[in-house]
Task: structure prediction
Amino acid sequence: MSVPNDLRYTRTHEWVREEGDTVVVGITHYAQEQLGEVVYVELPEVGRTLDAGEELGTLESVKAVSEFFSPVAGEVAEVNERLDDEPGLVNDDPYGEGWLVKITVSGDGAELMDAAAYEAFLAEEGH
Amino acid sequence: MHPWIGVGEADRRRILDELGLDSVDALFETVPAAVRTDRLDLPPAEDEGRLMASMRALSGRNTTAAAVPSFLGAGAYRHVQPSAVDAVLSRAEFFTSYTPYQPEISQGTLQAIFEFQTVIAGLAGLDVANASLYDGATALVEAALMSHRLLRAKRNTVVVAETVHPMYRRVLETYAGALGIAVVTVPPGEDGRTDPGRLAAAAGGDACCLVVQSPNFVGIVEDLPAVAEAAHGAGAMAVQVVAEAASLGILHGGGRFGFDIVCGEAQSLGLPLGFGGPHLGFFACREEHKRQMPGRLVGQTVDADGRRGFCLTLSTREQHIRRAKATSNICSNHGLMALAATVFMELLGGSGLRAMALGSHAAAEETKRRVLMLGDPWRLAYPIAPTFDEFLLVGPAPGEELARRAAEAGVFAGVPSRKWGGSWPDGLLVAATETTRAGEIRALVEVLGRIGR
Result:
């Protein structure tokens, strides 16, 4: 299972990449595998302000629907509009083309895990 | 515990222990004592033959709209009932009131639903229709709640024309009240139509949808293009509810005029009048809004060998997957009633639906003309506005009294227009359809003539 070292992770299986003032958010390889083939992604409106832990959008697969959450407090700067037509990018390239949202950070985030901690978390959860 | 064998004493004990109760009676304590009974005063059991005879004698005391001259409407209409509808419904393969819970094994049922959706979407003038809902009132509620979701629950007012069926509005208010959504009601103008500008202004920027019924409760065809424009100008969804689906045989559904949701009651399409039910709700919306749509949806697909087949689709909106975040608490449909409507619409075809609508309109116009020939004090409440197959007639007495006196003379002259309140004149809603016979119109004119003198 792929857990890149340069990212940080949440207990709800989002990953976060810092790019200056903004962070890029997606879901982990593990999360997309659990969901199965993603057929629809509901993304937030650009400009929406968020608290850390707030629901950011929904991912719909052929067998389930799952919410994803904002790892940080801030404002939605950009959403991955390609997912409207190509939701499968979330499965094919969860850490790259399948990113979900960019957020301009305005405050402290929830506590994030590094790759090792996330891997330990997955192991601990029985994954 | 076995899923379908009833519980025994031991099981009952376990359930009560789990609930922390000492008796089954304690479970029902919240039901007021006044409405509980420990003994039903029933006559001794009868054999089947006697029971049928006594039930027939009892039901024979009712007078049905088929047995006497009848101009009843107001949401339930007497239309043609082809025998083929019941013949198809009663086939064992079809005879269930729900979509099946192992759906894909029942391809015939899914195909019927798919065809129902196809015809309804066409009549509504929209892209997608669901597998049906309970009735016109709950369909309207679903439309309002869907609008609320589409605007991300940021607008908390539903603006509804008063000329939407009063019973539908009551159901809407029941749901909305529980969800903290306000319902603002806008009375009609002097011509009996809803003023789109007043509708749009009523919520002061907080409207998630504007709702009109067309033809409306007093029979009048609303100005749909203007309502759609007003709704969108106010940043709200445009919702049309239809209580007389036969009108869609000659009047375009609101989708053609920019409405986002067209929903309503499809009893007129093959369901008999039956003391208020069962009825059939329908619901159609735009492609881009389908993920917020309530209810079941059947899609067409191909199987592994490339053959056409049908399956439930977008099920992730529904309760069995989405739980509390489902788009609706409905997780079934009115399968048997939707099948009846499908058989009916496919038997009649487009030209037949049109003929039925034209016949209904012509019968209502003829009824109107003949009644107005009686002269004073009989007149139309709204003489100018266009109507489909129903109109509001005022006479020498309040509607309740007119209806009662006509019924005593053996004629159902119409539904009292203020039976459920309303700011419109107090008279009779008179409906006629393609089933209305010349003799019925003569009987109506005669009995009203006598009441008017």
About this structure: The mean pLDDT of chain B is 93.
